């Protein structure tokens, strides 16, 4: 009985062996990615031309500009959609009257 359980456990390890290997490979890759990311952040902090607060303000100002432009474009698209919808309604009314 114990022998059968032992054989089953060996077979399970054989079946799932490649999956275990891929999991450990994924962990190794993630560790490398994290290391490179942290190294990039450290280098960026060392080589930054401005103080952190100035860089942060520039980033926030740039994002505000992008947000404003995006909202303006969305407003334009909404107004164009409303215009097209009203033209479509009037065309549908005219077509219904002619029937």
Strand fraction: under 5%
Query: What's the overall average pLDDT, rounded?
Result: 78
Oligomer: single chain
Strand elements, count: 0
Largest sheet: none
Ranges where pLDDT stays below 50 over 5 or more residues in a row are 12-16
Query: Given the structure, what is the number of helices?
Result: 2
Order of helices and strands: HH
The radius of gyration over CA amounts to 31 Å
- Terminus-to-terminus distance: 86 Å
Structural class: mainly alpha
Helix content: over 70%
Task: Describe this entry's structure for a reader.
The protein is mainly alpha-helical. Helices cover 94% and strands 0% of the residues. It has helices at residues 2-47, 52-98. The longest helix has 47 residues, at 52-98.
Features:
99 residues; 2 helices; elongated
Strand and helix layout:
Elements: H1 2-47, H2 52-98
Quick structural summary:
Helices cover 94% and strands 0% of the residues.
